[in-house]
Each structure stands twice: as C-alpha cells, then as structure tokens.
Design goal:
This protein has helices spanning about 40-55, 70-80, and strands at about 1-5, 5, 10-15, 25-30, 60-65, 80-95, 95-105. With about 110 residues, the protein is α+β, with helices and mostly antiparallel strands. The longest helix has 14 residues, at about 40-55. The chain has a five-stranded mixed beta sheet, covered by helices on one side. It starts with a strand and ends with a strand. Helix content is about 20%, strand content about 45%.
C-alpha cells in the first residue's frame, strides 16, 4: 500500500517448502508508524485472507507476533486468528524479554 508514492504497508504470504506442510502458509504484515491507525493493516489483511481462501489445498494461515504487540493481536483476533502457543523469552529488545505468540486462522472447514 502506498501513500504519496511511498510504500507504507506490505504483506507476505509464504507456503511451506515441504509438500507434507503445503496446506499451511505463513503470513506477515507490516505498516509504517506514520500510517498506523488508518485501517490499512485490516484492509490489507482482509485482502490477503480472501485470496488465501481461494487457493486450492490451502487450509491454514499461521503468523507470529510479539506478545506485547496488543494492537496487532487485537487485529488478528478480530479477523478470526486464534492463539496456538507462545515462546517465552524469544527476543531481547532494549534489555526486555519479549515473548512470541503463534496464531493461526483456519481458511477452510
């Protein structure tokens, strides 16, 4: 997504390399600070989810998010992602221990 010709939001969807795991994909999204709070992350996520639901054989979308990123967790939860687990002390940022959460969305029932 661009504002004034500058990219301010992007999304990544990556399938698994192992054929036995290709029913799942990894999802990541990023929104520049200057563009947050405008609904770009939600709209972009909804577009990606809609696209993913149309892909044959793709049943799950996985993501990882820092446990202290409350706005992102709230967004993902509102889109139907559920928390599957947490890695305690995954990162050390500015001397702080940060947990990482694994969330997933079932694309097909």
């Amino acid at each position: 997504t661009e504002i004034g010709g500058e990219v301010v939001a992007d999304a990544l969807v990556r399938s698994a390399r192992l054929s036995s795991a290709q029913h799942r994909c990894q999802f990541a999204i990023g929104v520049e600070r200057i563009a947050r709070g405008q609904g770009l992350g939600r709209r972009l996520s909804m577009q990606v989810i809609s696209w993913a639901k149309l892909q044959p054989g793709l049943e799950w979308m996985d993501l990882w998010v820092a446990a202290n990123n409350v706005p992102a967790i709230s967004l993902y939860s509102s889109l139907g992602f559920e928390t599957l687990g947490k890695v305690t002390d995954q990162y050390r940022l500015l001397g702080q221990k940060v947990d990482d959460m694994h969330m997933a969305l079932r694309l097909k029932r």
